[in-house]
Amino acid sequence: MKALIIGCGIGGPTTAMALQRVGIDAEIFEAYDVPADNVGSFLNVASNGLDALRTLDAHREVLKAGIPTPRMVMWSGTGKRLGEVANGLALDDGTVSHTIQRADLYRIVRDEAVRRGIPISYGRRLVSYEENEKSVTARFEDGTEASGDILIAADGVHSRTRSLLDPAAPAPRYSGLYNFGGIVKDTGRTGEPGVYNMIFGRKAFFGYTVSDSGETWWFANLPRELGDVPPDWKATLVEAFAGDDNVSAELVGRGSVELALPIHDLPAVPTWHRGRVLLTGDAAHATSPSSGQGASMAIEDAIVLAACLRDEHGHAAAFESYERRRRARVERVVAWSKKISDSKAAGPVARVFRDLMLPVFLRRSAGDDSLAWMYRHHVEL
After folding, report:
1. Are 156 and 283 contacting, i.e. CB atoms less than 8 angstroms apart?
2. Arch. (CATH architecture) of 2-69+87-172+265-375
3. What is the rounded CA–CA span in Å between residue 36 and residue 120?
4. Where is the FAD-binding domain (predicted)?
């Protein structure tokens, strides 16, 4: 069997590596002309995602490049400490969730796939595909094409494959928030290493953590009408945080704003597969960054898909099995993440209610068992 994989983000290379483990050849096709070595700010790889990477024996470089971030402390914009919750649950060997530069994670999984002999072609933007009883052929914008037994879409929240598979598929859903990120590269400490400080400001949400070297990694979520782009995002953010009793405005002002993107997720996608074509990762179930689970879900998908293709008779049965094993879990994560995102875009009245109720919610969810469904989930080949 040969798989054509559309997209070389995180899901594409990990899917190819998982398929290779069960004896399936894969080739990755990336729409952009060059690798995404300098794209994006940073993200969370939760403990369950690191556990999945370990199943692929691809976790070591990720751990080296990331910052251990096992805890989150919540604050109001007035400086009130609202409570604390775990950022994932430690694995049996003590491994905790890590924060890593998005470009580093891309590079690590891509380079590991290449090291294992998996071919990657760039500048191959999918425009259509055609299938028959024996194969599927992908056609690309540059006029080339490729054929295989199955086609796996790992092309993200704005997936071209999803719209080809089902023209009636739901469009990405704007969360009402723009996402920003930056790093202040100096030796001044603004918090305890390994702790995310999450601040529900009066006008926007702010989060930051510090590395052992003293660098401060920050992100912000700003409620905004989609497409309402000011001439200077940095000035807009500083103004949004100016009235809060914390370091958010100072940190934004001291560095550069490296990312300004609208946050989207996906409502439930009815059709994950048809014929020889299957959606995975964000193409099937994009979640907002608020849960810190996007990368982890894609890696879990890769392993479950490979196991299904190994264990079931034929791709049709494998795709059905994959959906049965994954749909309920990933849709629960999407819903969880949306709930968090909605709280970040709360209006004045909702903010007061949120700040009153959040300490109660955090106390109830502080125990290991409450989020074990998310972080203790183990997939294997």
Report:
1. yes
2. 3-Layer(bba) Sandwich (3.50)
3. 13
4. 2-337
Who contacts 249 (Cβ-Cβ below 8 Å, separation ≥6)?
A: 237, 238, 241, 242
Bridge partners (DSSP) listed for residue 67: 99
Domain 176-261 has CATH 3.30.9.30: yes
Those residues whose C-beta lies under 8 Å from the C-beta of residue 9, and which sit 6 or more positions away, are 36, 106, 154, 156, 281, 298
Cβ atoms of residues 103 and 39 within 8 Å: yes
Q: Which of 301, 364, 303 is nearest to 333 (CA)?
A: 301
pTM higher than 0.90: yes
**In the chain, where does the domain assigned CATH 3.30.9.30 lie?**
176-261
How many other C-beta atoms lie within 10 A of the C-beta of residue 41? 21
List the structure tokens of 355: 């700040």
State the Cα–Cα distance between residues 110 and 221, nearest whole angstrom: 29
Instruction: Answer yes or no: are the C-beta atoms of 99 and 71 closer than 8 Å.
Output: no
- 222-266: per-residue pLDDT in tens? 999 999 999 999 999 999 999 898 889 999 998 888 778 999 999
The first and second tokens of residue 266, run together, are 């996906």
